[in-house]
Amino acid sequence: MQPILFRIPNTPNGLPVYGFGMMLFVTFIATTWLATRRAVRAGIAREVIQDVAVWIFLGGILGARLTYLIFHERMPIWPPERLWAILLALPRIWDGGIILYGAVAGAMAAYFVGHGLFFRHKANVTVLRMADVIAPTIALGLIFGRMGCLLNGCCYGQVACQKGCPSVSFPLWAPSAGALVHAGSQTACGFLVEYDSPARVTHVQLNSPAEQSGLRPGDVIVQMNGQEVKSARDIRAVLDDRKVPRDQKADITLTVERGSDEIIPRFPIFVETKRQRVELPTFRPRTLELQPTQIYESISMALLLFLLLAFEPFKRQDGQVMGLMMIGYAAHRYVNEILRSDERPVGFESNVSVFLMAAGLGLMVWLWWRARQAPPAARQARPEPVKAVAGSV
Q1: Residue 85 phi, psi dihedral angles, 5° rounding
Q2: pLDDT per position as a tens digit, 71-121
Q3: CB contact at 8 A, 42 and 35
Q4: Do 110 and 16 reside in the same domain of the chain?
Q5: How many structural domains comprise the chain?
Q6: Domain-ending residue, one of 229, 250, 279
Q7: How many whole angstroms separate alpha carbon 289 and alpha carbon 158?
Q8: Strand runs (DSSP E) across 133-253, as ranges?
Q9: Does 151 lie in the same domain as 46?
């Protein structure tokens, strides 16, 4: 997980470059390149597909964020003054909150608007032919998009219970860490302390980075990341400090007091404390091992991309490649949803997977029926590729 890939030097506070945003940029470049090559082979001018890419990308981002804010964050869109909060939250794609099916709906809406205004007047541009051009690029985009989810730590899976199975863990400030701590599955940093003063360690998780750093039950934490600690409330304040960039909260350095309380028998009996300060090596808390659902989807989409490209020479009508894409992705997504454990509109996404499967099957059946109804002479011939024009990009 690497939500911030690097920080740009010589900028205020080091301007961060987010992994999720970078993967969205890579997705846009890769899918536009593939769609352009496919469009030329389908007889569509490359300038058209480049315009379509902008419409689809912007519409997809808008639809994805709106779906997240409305269905997950429960942000109201009425009365009108509440809409301002949604508008301010829309551009914050680096926070995640990208619902794929919302992106599909937004991209489709944007395409049909652009098609009605501009694209339908271009040569060889039909909705079904354009759908077949775009279908494999969706699979390619999902490969890079889920890599972005892995870097961001979102769309994570359930706890991997069996040893030896594929798994991945995340730092303590990842979304999955907060969910696991809230559910009581693990501690935030690998140890527990008494709530009142002093911050005395009561339990240390076995085989955790905290235990490996040398932390022991009975240690009294007096400093955490250079800040004074008097109680558990001070530890929580350090973890929640919004002034510290989240990528700099990954490592924890503790200074503890350890030793023994020696009881000396005198009259009256009193306790003499013999303790010494110890600065422990820096350690990085991690979550439990989770199912790498992001990697599963990237692999699945790579296989689906290969299937779509291999099927295309055998298609009989425009639209069949998109139908196969809808069926394949719906089947994968329904199964992958079972393994996921992140906060999301679960019922919404599972139901949409079923609807997408039915729509893909319906499209394939409709194309087959339409082909049987049309006379052989009326069947469309495959258009000739468009030659590149000098100076075109």
Answers
A1: -65, -40
A2: 766 676 667 667 777 777 777 766 656 777 788 888 889 988 888 888 878
A3: no
A4: yes
A5: 2
A6: 279
A7: 9
A8: 191-193, 199-204, 220-224, 227-228
A9: yes
* Helices assigned H by DSSP within 18-172: 19-41, 46-67, 80-89, 100-117, 127-152
Q: What are the residues facing 4 on neighbouring strands?
A: 18
Chosen domain end from 279, 306, 332: 279
| pLDDT per position as a tens digit, 181-212 | 888 888 888 899 988 778 899 999 888 899 99
Distance from C-alpha of 159 to C-alpha of 169, rounded to nearest angstrom: 10
Per-position DSSP letters for 262-284, written without gaps between them = EEE--SS-EEEEEEEEEEPPPB-
Task: Judge residue 268's burial from the number of C-beta atoms within 10 Å of its C-beta, 0-12 exposed, 13-18 middle, 19 or more buried.
Answer: exposed
Q: Would residue 174 count as lying in a domain?
A: no
Which structural domain, as residue segments, surrounds residue 8? 4-157+292-375
Instruction: Tell whether 68 is covered by a domain.
Output: yes
Distance (Å, rounded) from C-alpha 310 to C-alpha 328? 14
Residue the block writes with tokens 């699979």: 139
SS3 state at 297:
helix
In a domain, 172, yes or no: no
Tokens matching residue 301 = 């989409």
Whole-number Å distance between alpha carbons of 52 and 113:
11
Q: What does the block give as tokens for 371? A: 């082909």
Q: Residues 75, 142: one domain?
A: yes
> Looking at residue 231, which CATH number applies to its domain?
2.30.42.10
